[in-house]
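Q: What would this chain look like folded?
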Amino acid sequence: MKPLPPGPKRAVSPFLHFRRDPLGFLRRAAQSGDVVHWKMLGRQVFLINNPELIRAVLVTDDNKFDKIMEAADSLLGKGLTAGRADIHRGQRRLIQPAFRPEQIAKFGATMVECAERVQADWRDGAKIDIKVEMERIALDVLGSTLLGQPLGAQTKEISKAMTMAIGAPPNMIMMGSCAKWLEMLPLPAFRRARVGRSVLHEVTNTLVRDRRAAKVKPDDLLTTLIRATGDRNGGGMSEQQLHDEVTNMYIGGFETVSNALSWIWYRLSQHPEAQRRLHEELNEVLGDRLPTFADLPALSFTQKIVRETLRLHPPLWIIWREALQDYPLNGCVAPKGAIILMSQYLVHQDGRFFPEPMSFKPERWTDDFRERLPKFAYFPFGGGSRQCIGDRFGFMEATFVLATIARHWRMELAPGHPVIENPALTLRPKYGLRMIVHAR
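A: My prediction, written as structure tokens:
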């Protein structure tokens, strides 16, 4: 076997560099090759930047790895997002029916209605935080489709709590089993995180308590999960698992979708030609009416905008796995217990797969380009057995919300507003995104 691959250039202390600037650190590390190695807090770390190697870890040999999110346990528990493989398989089978294509198709009208309701409050020339507005839509959609009740009225409370809850240093993902002890330190960031997570858990408790008390229970995902508790012989789950799954569901449906939509509006504000082509397509396909599920194939450029934004600003910006055994990796060996990192953010901006990788070019997403692109050169929703269960749901929601709002409005970034990517649990705009909305 070959010796261990090279480490990040100019990285005397990977831990400190990763803590201060995660994206910058990873960019510099990727310059060293398709497989980069370093040690952090006593653990071996391997960064993979090759689509075939990523496919091997996530698909071909996925049983040789497990997901590690100890640092997120106090927020996500053992739910679908963070649970180990043995828990994940059973929970995914239980939740999967809510995300079948025929079921998702029924949600389209609700997605459009929620977007139409939020934009009706805007006024020509008004300055808004588009991140907050997209959070209102995402919560309403999630509540109305999967949880049986709109959540838009709780947007401010949940948004503030979410910002606090995931505001701990992003290097926490590297701290393994030490994370729960480090989070107890009396530091301001950790203290804010504990308060925010407490609020989010109480939202979950209220959702479950209210549904159990309801005389008439809608036939949705929340009711399905509640019915599964106590049915231990039939493959059901515990009360704690129920709590974790509901928390994962609204955090995932709220946080990732609102971030993706926010970045879409930012990119359009910086690329007036793309915004013009979008409006032309909407005029041609929709005219004066709202979009429907049947319109999706014709909204080709609209979908290309979503794909290109997910390339440049993937809400799920990094995946990490723990090797369950020694694993041959491009000629060297990643030892048992090593952390394997795969970053959508890095691979999506790799010039080997995307000409002019830093340019926003929705038109690149032709059928021919998508067929030629290596499978794991573009994986905004992850891949393999742990691929995001709501990938179709989220992509359709982004398309419908974009089409619905762009019928009415053109976006302009507020002068002087700082736009900085914050790689926390998801890739968020650090200071929100202040936009001036102009009526079309």
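The mean pLDDT is 85.
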